[in-house]
Amino acid sequence: MSSTGSGLPIRPSGKPPTGPAPIQVERQTVRRRRLIDATCALPLLGWILWWLPLLWNGAAESVPASQALIYIFGVWIALAIGVGRLVHLLTRSRPVVGPGTYGGGR
Fold it and tell me: Could you tell me the keywords of this UniProt record (predicted)?
C-alpha cells in the first residue's frame, strides 16, 4: 500500500473508513449548547464595550461626556435586551434527555 507525503497510507476507494464512527448529536442539543455559549460570552462582550470609551481619550477631538454616557447606557440597554432574548430562547428550547445523557429521570 502506498502512502501520501505525510506518511499516512492511502485508503482504497470504495471502502468505508476504519475507526470509530463520528458521534451524531441532535440539532436541538447543538443549538442549546450554542445559546449557552453565547450567554457565557455576553458578559465579556459587555465588559469590552463598556471599556471602549477609555480609548476615546487618545482621539484628536475630545468626546463630550454626554455622548459617552449615552453610549454606556445604550450598551447597558442592549445587553439587557440581549440577555432577555437569550433567556427566552433557552427556556423555550428544552434539553434533550435520553438514555445516554445526564440529568435523566430517577
Answer: Membrane, Transmembrane, Transmembrane helix
